């Protein structure tokens, strides 16, 4: 930052704001990160970074630090259903550990698996990792505790007014662009007058975050990630050692001061768990909301500021990380001079449909849990009788049909940026978008599939700062590269043997992949002048071409 001026000012230093700052720095763009709180959160929020987010964060060199701070790789992602800690387990969604996922990924050759396993990590620890990186990065200027009070756009800049939370000092920052990553109650969104669509306060839950080494009781049904009680409570193992979070449904008018946290733990768990320390408490009400717009001039929204979901499925922060990476590389392209403004328009066109789908799918998960709870007979489910056993068997079958909350790969990394102005559209229909299943494809707009290169690296490691042309024996790749370099576009032309296993997964001889790992264009050959393709994918035109129907459906 020069004086009080910066290319980009980011309001809010939660995970989304910090990832955006680090993405910009990755592309050699400076930013100012303005945060109202003096420290990162100590409150349990998200507890899973999904495979797609881990792929995106791997580009920034963050995965090792996040895995070191998170749950060790040997622990599973199992979800258990039981009558109580002292009662019966009657269903389990078994999901592999990070170590097991790594083995599967190493063996896979068909592109169906992600390039990175998921990671269990509480937001408290994830924010610590991200903030350390931001403070260490010379391209990120962290201002905290500064509370933003106003954001206003002028002819060629945006001004941000902030007040120091402790001294009351006021300060005005000038920026080329401003991004509101300031959460559900976003001040930036309010300043823009952008409305939200959806439902508010769907449920009311009490949360107790606590420390206990009484693992004999807490893990009476074995190791788990999430444990659902028949009464509706949810217990989350945060670190597989001593930190736990318990959620339970309460009446809408419940006041926090009327809940004894230890009694709440004993009642919901159905066992006298020994509690060493209460770390945090709250009453919370989830929303499913989506902002009408993600952009107004030079001001943008990302993360919870533009979409809110129910935590079931873990789509909240993970959707926001996708926002941050999508917006970050596009800012860099425009600020470095090789990207057009239409590239910034493509941000909403690409990310808003993803958020809408994730919002609705999270609502589906909570609906499934309410269905499960409505089918449970609270007396029979814990009865040590033949009738009780029969009811537990019936519930196990009922729950098996509603699987998906713990793992939904089609939602997590099967989305496609169909119709984006920054993608060369293709005629015909692509693979069906199945939330529960990921089908690899290089159809423009899709995430480029993971395959292992002959040198042992994931092909995803190629997609980072610029565009990459993956060439399995296509025609005209050199001409494409020369045109890109002449236009000042960061570009790599990677030639892979046509006989390599990746060729069948990538479906076309030439596949152009963006810095965020999404396919921008594909074909068997390049026309004499690839300028139209490059103009579209860099935001200089808004009329994407379509390949002939016969080629699109091969």
Structure write-up:
The chain has 554 residues and is of the alpha+beta class. The protein is built from 16 helices and 24 strands. Strands 1, 2, 7, 8, 9, 10, 18 and 19 form an eight-stranded mixed sheet that branches. Strands 5-4-13-14-15-12-16 form a seven-stranded mixed sheet, with helices on both faces. A four-stranded mixed sheet has the order 22-21-23-24, with helices on one face. The longest helix is centred in the middle third of the chain and has 35 residues, at 341-375. The chain is globular. The protein starts with a strand and ends with a helix. 49% of the residues are buried.
Q: What is the element layout, followed by pairings?
A:
Layout: E1 5-11, H1 15-26, E2 31-34, E3 48-49, H2 51-58, H3 63-69, E4 79-82, E5 89-93, H4 98-107, E6 119-120, H5 123-136, E7 140-143, E8 146-153, E9 158-164, E10 170-180, H6 187-192, E11 196-199, E12 205-211, H7 215-218, E13 226-229, E14 234-237, E15 243-249, H8 261-269, E16 277-284, E17 288-291, E18 295-296, E19 299-301, E20 307-308, H9 316-336, H10 341-375, H11 386-400, H12 409-413, E21 467-471, H13 477-486, E22 491-495, H14 502-506, E23 510-513, E24 519-523, H15 531-537, H16 549-552
Helix pairs in contact: 1-5, 1-9, 9-10
